[in-house]
Design a protein that fits this description.
Layout: E1 7-14, H1 20-30, H2 48-53, E2 60-67, E3 73-80, H3 88-95, E4 100-106, H4 113-124, E5 128-134, H5 143-154, E6 162-163, H6 172-182, E7 195-204, E8 208-217, E9 220-221, E10 225-228, E11 233-236, E12 239-243, E13 247-249, E14 252-253, E15 258-262, E16 276-279, E17 298-304, H7 310-323, E18 328-334, E19 338-345, H8 348-362, E20 366-368, E21 375-379, E22 384-387, E23 399-414, H9 418-427, E24 431-437, E25 441-449, H10 450-464, E26 470-481, E27 483-490, E28 493-494, E29 500-503, H11 504-521, E30 529-535, E31 538-545, H12 562-582, H13 589-596
Parallel strand pairs: 1-3, 1-4, 4-5, 5-6
Antiparallel strand pairs: 2-3, 7-8, 7-16, 8-15, 9-14, 10-11, 10-16, 12-13, 12-15, 17-19, 17-20, 18-19, 21-22, 21-23, 23-25, 23-26, 24-25, 27-28, 27-29, 27-30, 30-31
Helix pairs in contact: 11-13
Length: 599
């Protein structure tokens, strides 16, 4: 039996592409959890979409057994976390289930924005930090320079920095030995009543809802009746197990351990992330503080292309919400698109991933409306309203002022790109707070409107810095701005899904760019299609998709037949007008998404 003192729970944190998942692979391989035949790259990235994009989206856990040099046998529970800013809530949840963190820094890239952000989260959770320099075998690796950065920027003691190569397997045993010696074991009383934290949950077609738990006190066994504190619902535990990294059934999960339980839970709403699990008849145990609910910053509407798919979409969103608690949705109805959902995300990549998962895992065709942020509107009568959807904006004559959210952005980049990045931030209405130089790096701190960030800021930042700049942000405050609603009309019909709120100074440029983009993407019809951008009743940009035309006068020969030609052309013209009055313009789904990405 493993004592609590021989358990170590830790997470692996780093910036994107610094080698978290590869390090997890090597630790699994070194401890012999999988044979060489079963091993594959990024073994913990189980979703197809993670493997294709080469990013971690969901934090994954694995339990390993390690025989240390001192002869003791240790249980290691590792959580591999995402690196992208859009999945920071996932990181925060994972950190609260551990006592320590391995901070991985790329020996060639050095400290980047998400390295800073994840380190701060780990420090907030009172973690012991083990700094690790990865990729030391790369030709561009410069360990001394990066150690200086770690000391200057992060303020971490570099005397014990481990130098490894996760890909080649160099220094993996040193990492395991340091974890065993440096990290403290979990605190908890095996003899107390059960107290466990619900860390994560997901839906399995065969088992129902599967719940990842961290046992704080006591233990969880098969056949126990437990209660979920927040929802006050009672369940009989059917299955108890751990990830080794495959799902493996065990008799019980003891104090300080991570594992999964199933309890034939059909209702998705009964499992709230951060909830406390206690014995069914226990009225004394106090609940854990739980997690702060995540605040979505980007909103968009999701509507099924086929109205009959509405119920399937509702079920699919509920199952995704279970697996990703930072995703929010509520029902809404649009005059143009029918019944659908208003969804909240932590960023544009998060939105993209959710839409792709709906397509792959549930096979639902969707129309996605323009992403927007939450605006605060003060009405003339003094009341304040929150605007989630640009289509719901009240009449401008009733509005006193509109405020938009601003973010505090941290950008870290090599010295040579600083000019380009400052001009990009100025284009996006940014206000500079700080500019700090280290030997080869610049740390820029800017205040930027979130509305300008959600579309293409990250892509443009990467392209102007040759991929070297890194970016992290947090919501700062609301500020009053001169904002207007930009409406798009196709064939004189307003398209709700494409209406957006923009700054007045950029409205004409944005409207013109979207009209030009839509002209390329909307297929030709039998009649002319005018595409217009408008602010209120004023048209500020227009493009026309020309219709197909048949040459009705080609069979008329000889001169003097002008009257007959005129009659045929007039007849054709009237037909086109009639078609345009009753004709319906189909806007393809890719046109919606492409129109949003215009610069």
């Amino acid at each position: 039996m493993t004592e609590v003192t021989n358990i170590r729970n830790f997470s692996i944190i780093a910036h994107i592409d610094h080698g978290k998942s590869t390090l997890a692979d090597r630790l699994i391989q070194f401890c012999g959890a999988l044979s060489n035949r079963e091993m594959k790259e990024q073994v913990l990235d189980s979703m197809d979409i993670e493997r294709e994009r080469g990013i971690t989206i969901k934090a994954q856990t694995v339990r390993l057994e390690y025989n240390a040099k001192d002869g003791e046998k240790y249980i290691l529970n590792i959580i591999d976390t995402p690196g992208h800013v859009d999945f920071s809530y996932e990181v925060n949840r994972s950190l609260s289930a551990c006592e320590g963190s391995i901070l991985v820094v790329d020996a060639s890239q050095g400290v980047e924005a998400q390295t800073l952000a994840n380190l701060y989260q780990a420090v907030d959770n009172d973690h012991i930090i083990i700094p690790v320099l990865n990729k030391i075998d790369l030709p561009a690796a410069d360990s001394e320079r990066v150690k200086t950065q770690i000391k200057e920027i992060l303020g971490v003691d570099t005397s014990k920095v481990l130098e490894i190569s996760a890909k080649s397997g160099i220094g993996i045993e040193d990492v395991l030995e340091t974890v065993v010696l440096e990290l403290s074991p979990p605190t908890g009383e095996p003899n107390n009543k059960l107290k466990a934290m619900l860390v994560d949950s997901w839906y399995d077609a065969y088992l129902g809802v599967v719940i990842l738990v961290r046992v704080i006190d006591g233990s969880i066994k098969k056949g126990m009746e437990v209660k979920f504190h927040a929802t006050n619902s009672k369940h009989l535990i059917e299955r108890v197990g751990t990830f080794n990294p495959k799902m493996t059934s065990v008799d019980e999960i003891k104090t300080g351990e991570l594992g999964y339980i199933t309890a034939a839970i059909k209702e998705v709403a009964q499992t709230k992330v951060g909830d406390t699990i206690i014995m069914a008849n226990d009225r004394e145990t106090l609940p854990l503080p739980g997690f702060k609910p995540s605040q979505p910053v980007v909103f968009c509407g999701l509507f099924p292309t086929n109205a009959a798919d509405f119920k399937f979409l509702k079920d699919a969103l509920a199952k995704l919400r279970l697996n990703d608690s930072s995703f929010h949705f509520e029902q809404e109805t649009s005059a143009a698109l029918g019944m659908g959902f208003r969804c909240g995300f932590l960023g544009l990549l998060h939105l993209e991933i959710i839409v792709e998962r709906l397509d792959r895992e549930f096979d639902i065709d969707l129309i996605t409306t323009a992403p927007s942020v939450i605006y605060n509107i003060e009405m003339n009568k003094g009341e304040m309203i929150e605007l989630h959807n640009p289509a719901d904006m009240p009449d401008t004559t009733l509005i006193r002022s509109i405020s938009e959210p601003w973010i505090k952005a941290t950008i870290i980049c090599p010295n040579e790109f600083v000019g380009n990045i400052i001009s990009l931030c100025e284009d996006k209405r940014g206000i500079q707070y700080e500019l700090n130089y280290s030997e080869t790096r610049v740390i820029l701190i800017y205040q930027l409107p979130l509305n300008e960030i959600v579309f293409d800021f990250y892509d443009r930042l990467k392209s102007i810095s040759s991929g070297y700049a890194s970016f992290d942000y947090e919501i700062d405050e609301y500020k009053e701005s001169d904002l207007v609603k930009l409406s798009l009309l196709v064939n004189a019909e307003p398209v709700d899904a494409l209406s957006m709120i923009v700054h007045r100074d950029f409205s004409a440029r944005k409207g013109r760019a979207i009209c030009e983009k839509l002209k390329e993407l909307i297929p030709r019809h039998q009649f002319h299609i005018p595409i217009q951008a408008a602010i209120g009743g004023k048209i500020i940009a227009r493009e026309t998709v020309s219709g197909y035309r048949k040459n009705v006068i080609e069979k008329i020969h000889g001169g003097g037949a002008t009257d007959r030609k005129r009659k045929l052309l007039d007849k054709q013209k009237k037909g086109k007008q009639r078609l345009r009055t009753f004709g319906k313009v189909d806007i393809p789904q890719e046109a919606f998404i492409a129109a949003l990405k215009v610069e």
